[in-house]
Amino acid sequence: MISPNEYAERRQRAVNLMESPSVMILYSGVEKVSSADEGYPFEVNRNFYYLTGIDQPDSVLLLLNSEGEMKEFLFISPYDERKEKWYGKRLKSDEASAISGISNVMTNLSLQAKLELILGEDAYGEIKRVYLDLDREIKITDDTDTREMKRVIENTYSDVIVNDAFPLITTLRLRKSAREIDELREAIRVTRLGIYSIWANMKDGKKEYELADVFHHTINDESGYQGTAFNTIMAAGRNAAILHYPNPQGQMKDGDLLLCDLGSRHNYYCADVTRCAPVNGKFSDYQRLIYSIVLGCNKMIASIAKPGLTIEELQNRTVEYLASECLRYGIIEKKEDISKYYFHGVSHLIGLDTHDPYKTPLSTESKKIPLEPGMVISDEPGLYIAEKNIGVRIEDDLLITRTGCEVLTKDIVKEIDDIEARLASLKR
Q1: Exposure winner among 142, 196, 331, 413, fewest CB in 10 A?
Q2: Residue 387: Cβ within 10 Å count
């Protein structure tokens, strides 16, 4: 677990990036309706979670930069015995304080009064700037989001400017602390067990979803039901040529390669791993060729990833490598044809989100920023040749260090001989 001291340090760094005097208002989010009176499982706003460690709906963080001094307040739902009987336990004030390191914990019934005190009565100085997380999905109530709140604040307080807090916090999230890396290592450890469980149950005639279920059961049993980092991709044969294969209803056959792109999570930190293995335990000559090209590229990226390089530069090296190798073996006729068989990026940021955002939720700016120690990125080249019923992607998670990178997923085997040996041992 992240310590309350680390959450406090993160909040101080956030305040240091805020103009003075100003206030940041972050919402944990609300439970969302799926249909009728059924709701989706609650997923906390990761920026709120990053600064508090609080994982429950209807909670709010206020951070004040008042002449360079930080003041902080946490608002949570009041204790409700009836709701607790129906829906389970919510944090009490002392529990929320122990997790977050925030001493000023109040009920969210007092939030509006506190905001009026801050913005309308200048109780903490003349606040002229408000920071809100303006991600399109951050709800305050069932029918109000932070963008609507921005309009309300600007209409109510004409001299107040509302800024987006999203790029400020995601900039802080770029570089992981030692404790965050530990969380990622644990997510990867559990993912490794899940992959080996898939391989132990893989055989001719099995449905793809059966192996997805095996993975989910294994990681939830090991992690205490923390769930997957993203929707599991389980694709056999030709299905593996679809990048985000959505419906694992196909049946695997002797001679297929099974591609599994998946990850467990630990305290919301996400593993993101892809491995491919032959259903019958042995790579065919053609599978061995395609796999070897992708593996060579995967290892090349890990060998060059270091501070100062950008993800965009890693992508350029990937395209060049795959094109040259495919041309060499007659898979394509000219280098430009590589786009037919490789059509995605080789890397993205990893952290509290599988694709950790930067600046805006869907921004591609992270591909152009120089890598720094503490960043974690994916390394996932692939080749997808549908007419040959094959798709191969090999994905590792890389921690950028001072001199290069550490392959966090190195204990999940990926060499052809190692995969075949493990499959043979599992079958025994």
Answers
A1: 142
A2: 7
